[in-house]
Amino acid sequence: MNYYPVFLQLKDKPCLVVGGGRVGERKVEGLLKAGARVTVVSPEVTPRLAGLAREGRIDWEPREYQPPDLKGKVLVFVATPDRQLNWRVAKECRERGIWVNVADGPEESSFLVPAVVRKGSLQVAISTGGQSPALAAWLRERIEEMVGKEYGSFSQFLAELRPLLKERFPEDQTKRADIFRKLARDTELLELVARGDKKAARERVERCLSGW
Length: 212
Fold this sequence. Notes:
alpha/beta, 7 strands, Double Stranded RNA Binding Domain, two-stranded antiparallel ribbon, Rossmann fold
């Protein structure tokens, strides 16, 4: 099966995690980074999840899963050791049109979670379509070594240039796209941003725009 890669905007969206173990904890952490509103349903949870509940960062229902828990949810993660429960939750999600991911159960999931390299706003996702999570994890480690933290700052810097380029070339989207491609490959510009010298970086952008 071929999957369609996509990044979801989950800020303030209600999401559910069924299961409060280590795997469930990882799913919760990922959802919180995306700004989602998270509810965890599980009789017991890890100390980390209990702490997040005390801080008011997540809602914790200390009991077994019930079908009404799905009401209003846009995304569900199922991470329990009970395979029958996992299958039942996934089935009920599919019947309601809710996107669901079952840990260690790609055949029951409507979406998969890739291995991700994060550098600020820059994210690189790797997936093997559920066939080999170990390979995806190994590739993530290799890419982590290749893509330094400076690329996160560089991504932010390029984003800040958008208003400038829209002002200079308001009607020419193709021209703007071409300029962004050139700037993204400018290693000298990357080095200036990595050093934190935004003034010199802006000056280089102006010289490049004049030359182009």
